[in-house]
């Protein structure tokens, strides 16, 4: 049976302390929470994520990864001996962050949850298909940056982690109007 994320929609709330709703500027009075469906579209489209893990001594470790959103779960991978794999073996809590770097436009997302290794071959095949659909020639073409990734998932060279969101945050910026949405699952 495939790993699946939450079956219910999260509660969604606008945090006005960090949104333009408190600042009198054009458009601020109309600021609303960003719906989860919109946040999911951003998760599906994002090409790069930053995964934050905690080392056994408590120091943070942050690194970029590619990831695929599939069946309400965010999947990413790493080599078995890499720092993030060692950190997650010690403590599965992590955050995946994606977005842009513009001050006035864009939408950033932070997904917090517990990373769990995926071992089920059927789920791995679904994840491989999701990666191939999302990243196309980067994975499927012999010239692709990540060519052969599916085989590293199948043979266990890479560990695939599944993160079902526990909490997520969306930070919107539209022409200088800001929103901060919290999603609780």
Automatic annotation (TrEMBL):
This is Pyridoxamine 5'-phosphate oxidase family protein. Transmembrane segments: none annotated. InterPro entries: F420H2_bilvrd_red/Heme_oxyg, Pyridox_Oxase_N, Split_barrel_FMN-bd. Residues 38-146 form the Pyridoxamine 5'-phosphate oxidase N-terminal domain. Keywords: Oxidoreductase. Residues 1-27 are annotated as: Disordered. It comes from the Bacteria. Coiled coil: none annotated. Residues 1-22 have a biased composition (Polar residues). SUPFAM superfamilies: FMN-binding split barrel. It holds the Pfam family PNPOx_N.
């Amino acid at each position: 049976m495939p790993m699946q994320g939450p079956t219910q929609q999260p509660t969604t709330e606008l945090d006005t302390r960090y949104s333009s709703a408190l600042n009198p500027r054009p458009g601020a009075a109309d600021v609303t929470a960003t719906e989860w469906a919109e946040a999911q579209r951003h998760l599906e489209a994002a090409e790069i994520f930053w995964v934050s893990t905690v080392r056994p001594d408590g120091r943070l470790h942050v690194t970029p990864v590619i990831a695929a959103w599939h069946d309400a779960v965010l999947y990413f991978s790493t080599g078995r001996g890499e720092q993030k794999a060692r950190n997650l073996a010690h403590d599965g809590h992590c955050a995946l962050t994606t977005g842009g770097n513009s001050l006035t436009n864009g939408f950033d997302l932070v997904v917090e949850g517990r990373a769990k290794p995926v071992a089920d071959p059927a789920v791995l095949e679904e994840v491989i298909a999701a990666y191939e659909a999302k990243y196309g020639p980067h994975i499927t073409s012999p010239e692709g940056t990540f060519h052969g990734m599916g085989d590293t998932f199948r043979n266990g060279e890479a560990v695939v982690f599944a993160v079902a969101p526990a909490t997520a945050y969306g930070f919107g910026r539209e022409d200088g109007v800001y929103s901060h949405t919290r999603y609780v699952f």
